[in-house]
Amino acid sequence: MILGDYAGALKIFHTLQAGQKDNPLLDYSLGVCQFNLGEYPASIKALGVASRTDSLSLRARYFRGKAYQALGQNMEAIADFQYILDADSGSRPARMELIRTFCQSGRLDMAARTLSKEPDINECLLMGRSLLNRNRSHDALEYARIAYALDSTLWTSRILLADVLFSLKQDSGAYFRYASLMMENKGSSVVARKMALCFEQDPMRHIPSAIMFMQKYFQLAGDTTVGDAGRMGNWYYELKQYDSAEVYFRKVVELDPTVVQGHFNRGLALVQLDRLNEAVQEFKHSEMLDRENIQFSASIPRSLGSTYAMKKQFRSAITSFRRSLDIDPGDLEATLGLARAYDGAGRRQDALKWYKKFLNAAKKQLPDGGVIKETRERMKELSAYYTPDK
What is the Cα–Cα distance from 261 to 130, expressed in whole angstroms? Predict the structure, then answer.
């Protein structure tokens, strides 16, 4: 039999079982093959039979526990691994799987109590990564440091420590560790991405460097995700490179047409590129998709109103700004936008009314001067033509 040919072995064991109905060793062998083939329910059944034989009990329970673990039946897995440890407290494989099962089920405190008196590096790596994944970065740091002290040359211990430091916003420590890993393995897409995120998080916001490493990640990984394409779009937009921003926002909606933020951000980039008709369509699409976040919902018709105003389609702008203010009546930008849309449409009475509303609200939030000064001057000009009712 070829080593690792579990399918072939399984056929042989089934043939043998037909003539030997009561053979625990055969049940054990069947169960192990089925486990390795991902046939977990059948594996559990066969290993359950084998576990009744004392000489096979611990080995059968180990694989049955892993099968339960794979099915997400954590309580059953814990029972099997705990049984092994009660019989043999020195079984590191069983202890490791028990810790893993506790971590998978979110019982991290129980996992910590299950550690050996002197945890080995694998236990520390598992605990550190599990705590980090649960946003318990300060607790993860202890295990990451122990793992690094046990073997500072091991890739997994080095990247765990870097990830924990990054999560704790200790940017310089994370950066130097990622950079060291990148120098040793220039083909690592994982580290290239982490370098990009490190530059993004840096207080100095080294966005060009973030873009460079994210592009390297795309090249190495051969693909991208909605989240990373969105990041690239945001970075380019921040740098005012709107053509590149639009490319990545378009990638977002190609990957997932239901992402509201992708359509909205592409609309913003298209406005900057003076592609206003396309921008209107993107804002409309995002408004159609968005039904949850009130603050974001208000920003969509507000941006749509601004785009219509730029196109001098003031009637449509008025409709959009009013829809935005229905959602968020305190939005200063939409209030001013509505006043200007009425102004552009020649509806001076409505323009004066909304300019006044804007001034009353803005005086509490904005410094005197700038847009407030411009608004007052415009109101004086309009008042020369029309005096509103008192």
Answer: 30
Residues 6+ away with beta carbon under 8 Å from 187: 220
- Per-residue pLDDT reduced to its tens digit, 162-192: 999 999 999 889 999 999 999 999 999 999 9
Do 67 and 50 contact (CB within 8 A), yes or no? no
Query: What's the domain count of the chain?
Result: 2
> CA dist 302 to 55, 299, 333, Å?
73, 5, 8
Any domain includes 142: no
- pTM of the model as a whole: 0.74
On whether the CB atoms of residues 64 and 56 are closer than 8 A, the answer is no
At residue 97, φ and ψ (nearest 5 deg) are -70, -30
Examine the fold and report which residue of 106, 132, 155 is the final residue of a domain before the chain moves on.
106
Task: Classify residue 57: in a domain, yes or no.
Answer: yes
- DSSP state for residue 302 in the 8-state scheme: H
Reported as a single tens digit per residue, the pLDDT across 233-284 is 999 999 999 999 999 999 999 999 999 999 999 999 999 999 999 999 999 8
- Cβ contacts of residue 215 below 8 Å, gap of 6+? 232
Read off φ and ψ for residue 240, nearest 5 degrees. 65, 25
Q: Which residue has the tokens 């339960």?
A: 68
When pLDDT is averaged across residues 86-110 and rounded to a whole number, the result is 94
Which of 153, 162, 154 lies closest to 132 in space, CA to CA? 162
Residue 202 in any domain: the answer is no
Q: How far apart are the first and last CA of the chain?
A: 97
Mean pLDDT of 19-32: 87
Domain end point (choices 106, 136, 162): 106
Give CA–CA dist 205/238, Å, rounded. 10
Q: What is the DSSP letter of 206?
A: -
CATH code of 379's domain: 1.25.40.10
Residues 177/165, Cβ–Cβ less than 8 Å? yes
Residue 208 belongs to some domain of the structure = no
With beta carbons less than 8 A apart as the criterion, state whether 27 and 47 touch.
yes
Distances (CA, A) of 304 to 113, 189, 257, 274: 56, 38, 19, 14
The range of the structural domain enclosing residue 102 comes to 1-106
